[in-house]
């Protein structure tokens, strides 16, 4: 593969290389990480045994089959991305903002003093985003059909109405614009109709001028992407791309017809926009053609994504568009500067595995390929620099994957279902695995219940995660690959990390919990200590 460097000689910093779309009901400062597998399975007596590119097979039949449908020609189902690994930071350089959906408030926590202030917002705040200059926080108030813009210093608020029945917001890189829309892909998306309801609308919120502009942009908006300079937003729907020029007032909209079959349009499942805003790449379900849209003049072209392309991502520096062709066992790498004129690099993937999903390290030097469509207990490590791909065995099939900010470790979340013919102490249990990507030393851990949310320290040393209906909070140390848990007093709601951190031992996590007067626990991963504050909403309730 040809390695391309950006004109600046580097790549934009990414908070995480994540598999996933948007997290369901994120309501505070939260980020992301990875998981464990341990040196303790029958096929892993020595961590160096797999260095030659081979991998152990736990299947009793020994033929390497690891998923349903291996004995017929039925194609595997689509790859799925798990919401667990998709949370994003909701913090300024000093404050953390935490949504309290049942109390219609947002808590502002001072990272230096741990002082907590309560800010009244609209009904049922379910998400909070923060501007990149740390001056404003914005809550999405789902029951009120509104957003509240919060001055991060003074706590002054302005509530602005958006269109009805939305469930999601995204913020532009410069923090000025927030786009509200109905994201049908969320697990808890509500399709109920009371009176009149549209599935074509978005609201653009200017958090500086405090104005809202709403438009119809095509049926079933699926994703919103911003250019690096935040001057353009691209909204993907089933049959159209809407290019919104955010640098003019009113917003300039260009609706680009994707020339889909009007009677049976294909399902658009993924869009990527180059940082410069020159091209948009659109992947459709069930077709090998990847649509390339020139956002400057609206012209359309196609590139060959191979047989059954199931995942598409831009490289961290934005110079490559990577397409996983599951059906033809290929990884296709297109030049984003000239995607229609430059032939792609076509890299064969190991034939012994079904590979349909890709997660890259933030530096772009390594990646992991895997499938979430079949019950295969294996994953492939890709050294981007050398081009080598090495298959590795796992204790259970893969549900989601993330790579740490430093690219040294990975977290793998496993499915509850097992690979065929497996029966061990991981069977019928939730699990995760922490992996050292340099040595492939692993630590697989059994979990009491399904992992729901997670967060990661700024340097990627620690992660915290919460599980469904469980007061135990998991603590991961990626340096040692050890996984512990601590008990908090009430059921967790949201989780995150405080933004101030100079050394790994200074990392401090927080866990908001169900409590009528407000309850927040601070967790120190370095020594597993827990401090809890209860009743910080007392004054607001008296008022």
Protein model, in words:
The chain starts with 16 loop residues before the first strand and ends with a helix. Residues 2-71 and 83-89 have low confidence and may be disordered. Helices cover 1% and strands 41% of the residues. The protein is mainly beta. It is built from one helix and 40 strands. A hairpin with a 5-residue loop joins strand 13 and strand 14 (232-236). A five-stranded antiparallel sheet has the order 1-29-30-31-32, with no helix packed on it. It has a four-stranded antiparallel sheet with strand order 5-6-7-8, with no helix packed on it.
What descriptors fit this protein?
single chain, about 550 residues, mainly beta, five-stranded antiparallel beta sheet, four-stranded antiparallel beta sheet, 1 helix, 40 strands, disordered N terminus
């Amino acid at each position: 593969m040809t390695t391309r460097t950006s004109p600046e000689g580097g790549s934009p910093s990414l908070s995480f290389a994540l598999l996933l779309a948007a997290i369901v009901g994120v309501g505070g400062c939260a980020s992301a990480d990875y998981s464990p597998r341990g040196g303790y399975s029958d096929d892993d007596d020595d961590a160096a045994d797999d260095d030659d590119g081979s991998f152990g097979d736990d299947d009793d039949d020994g033929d390497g089959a690891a998923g349903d449908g291996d004995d017929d020609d039925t194609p595997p189902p689509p790859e799925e991305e798990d919401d667990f690994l998709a949370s994003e930071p909701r913090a300024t350089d000093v404050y953390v903002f935490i949504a309290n959906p049942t109390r219609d408030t947002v808590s502002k926590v001072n990272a230096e003093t741990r002082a907590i202030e309560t800010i009244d917002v609209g009904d049922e705040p379910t998400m909070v985003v923060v501007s990149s200059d740390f001056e404003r926080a914005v809550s999405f108030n789902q029951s009120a059909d509104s957003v509240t813009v919060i001055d991060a210093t003074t706590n002054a608020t302005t509530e602005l109405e958006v269109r009805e029945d939305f469930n999601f917001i995204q913020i532009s890189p410069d923090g000025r614009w927030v786009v509200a829309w109905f994201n049908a892909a969320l697990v808890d998306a509500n399709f109920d109709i009371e009176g009149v309801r549209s599935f074509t609308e978005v609201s653009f919120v200017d958090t500086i001028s405090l104005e809202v502009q709403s438009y119809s942009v095509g049926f079933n908006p699926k994703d919103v992407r911003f250019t690096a300079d935040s001057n353009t937003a691209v909204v993907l729907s089933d049959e159209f791309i809407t290019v919104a020029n955010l640098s003019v007032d009113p917003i300039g909209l260009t609706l680009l017809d994707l020339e889909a079959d009007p009677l049976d349009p294909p399902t658009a499942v993924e869009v990527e926009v180059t940082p410069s805003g020159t091209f948009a790449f659109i992947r459709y379900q069930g077709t090998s053609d990847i649509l390339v849209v020139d956002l400057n003049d609206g012209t359309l072209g196609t590139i060959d994504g191979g047989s059954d392309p199931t995942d598409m991502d831009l490289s961290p520096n934005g110079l490559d568009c990577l397409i996983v062709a599951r059906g033809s066992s290929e990884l296709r790498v297109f030049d984003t500067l000239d995607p229609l004129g430059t032939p792609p690099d076509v890299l064969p993937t190991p034939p012994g595995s079904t590979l349909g999903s890709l997660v890259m390290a933030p530096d772009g030097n390594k990646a992991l390929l895997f499938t979430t469509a079949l019950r295969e207990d294996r994953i492939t490590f890709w050294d981007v620099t050398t081009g080598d791909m090495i298959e590795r065995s796992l204790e259970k099939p893969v549900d989601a994957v993330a790579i740490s900010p430093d690219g040294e470790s990975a977290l793998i979340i496993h499915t509850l279902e097992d690979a065929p013919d497996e029966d061990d102490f991981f069977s019928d249990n939730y699990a995760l695995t922490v992996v050292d990507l340099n040595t492939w030393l692993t630590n697989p851990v059994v979990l009491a219940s399904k992992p729901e949310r997670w967060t990661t320290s700024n340097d990627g040393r620690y992660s915290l995660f919460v599980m469904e209906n469980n007061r135990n909070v998991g603590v991961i140390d990626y340096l040692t690959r050890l996984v512990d848990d601590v008990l908090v007093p009430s059921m967790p709601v949201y989780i995150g990390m405080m933004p101030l951190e100079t050394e790994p031992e200074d990392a401090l996590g927080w866990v908001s919990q169900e409590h009528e007067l407000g309850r927040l626990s601070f967790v120190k991963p370095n020594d597993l200590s827990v401090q809890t504050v209860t009743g910080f909403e007392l004054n607001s309730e008296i008022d």
